[in-house]
Structures are given as structure tokens and as C-alpha cells.
Amino acid sequence: MSNRLDLPRRGKRSLRPTYNSEAFGRLSERFARFLGTANFLVYMSVFVLTWVLWNALAPSDLRFDSFPFIFLTLILSLQASYAAPLILLAQNRQADRDRIQSAEDRSRDERNLAATEYLTREIAALREGLGDAATRDFIRGELRELLEELRSKVESDSE
């Protein structure tokens, strides 16, 4: 059955779990964005303060993590061990987006430069062409001179 060319091959099965890397990347970016907010600092501070106060001031039989708060340290270390790679993943994704944006910016800048150079050449060609063409001021000046000549001729003929 595996030699049949009219059927697609079955995918190889693996014991490793599969995941959507794009969804995981988006989740890591949201998490990293949240870690960088004042809300996270406030929530974390309230959590730690509540933990310490409860385990320091509550009756002995209700305390679950006595001084030096080893379980709190474990939880914070676990949170940090997951936060650091997620933040790095988010930074890598942002760096990839920045590289793509930079390449697009360079491409757009090159197109703008080419368009500007083209327009500069066109303006130069128009200036050259206008150098050979009679301008409105030149024609007015010539007409004034002709009018003066005609007046002077008319005056000389009338005398």
C-alpha cells in the first residue's frame, strides 16, 4: 500500500506534541507585553505582600509557607524561568518584524529615489526646452520694441 502513487503518503507519527508556533508566538508576545506593564507590577506586589503577610501574621495552623518563604521563592523562580524565554521569543519575533519592515522601507526609499531622479531629469529637460522657446516676457518685450519702432516711424512720416 505504501508504494501506491495515487494516494498521498500518511504523515509520520511522532510522540512529540505538536503545537501552532504562530499562536504560541502571539501568546508569548501578549505575555511579554503584560509583564512590562504597571498592572503586572501592582498584581505581583499585592500577591507577594499578601503571601508574606499571611504567612507571617496568620495563626500558626493556617500558615502554609513559614519564613524564609521557600515556597514563594520556588513560585517566583518558576515564573521567572518561564518569563525569560517567553520574553526572548517575543523579542525575536519583533526583531523579525523589524527586519522585514526595514527591508520594505529600503525598497520604498529606493523607489522614491528613482522617482525623484526621474522627475529631476524631466525638469532639467523642460528647462532646456524652455531655453529655446519664447517666453511671455520675451514676446512682450519684442512687441514693445516693435511698437516703439512703429511709433517712431509714424512720427517721422508725419513730420
Description:
The structure is a single chain. By secondary structure, the protein is mostly helical. The protein has one domain (21-154). The protein has 4 helices and no strands. It has helices spanning 21-35, 38-57, 70-132, 136-158. α1 (21-35) crosses α3 (70-132). The longest helix is centred in the middle third of the chain and has 63 residues, at 70-132. The protein is elongated. The model has no long low-confidence stretch (mean pLDDT 88).
Please provide a brief summary of the model.
With 159 residues, this protein is an all-alpha fold. The protein has helices at residues 21-35, 38-57, 70-132, 136-158. The longest helix has 63 residues, at 70-132.
List the helices and strands and how they pair.
Elements: H1 21-35, H2 38-57, H3 70-132, H4 136-158
Helix pairs in contact: 1-3
Largest sheet: none
Radius of gyration: 41 Å
User: Percent of residues in helical segments?
Assistant: over 70%
Task: Please report the total strand number as a whole number.
Answer: 0
β-strand percent reads under 5%
Regions with little confidence, pLDDT below 50 for 5+ residues:
none
- Give the termini distance in whole angstroms: 122 Å
Order of helices and strands: HHHH
Mean pLDDT: 88
How many individual domains?
A: 1
- How many alpha or pi helices? 4
Oligomer: single chain
| Shape verdict | elongated
Counting helices, strands and paired strands, the structural category is mainly alpha
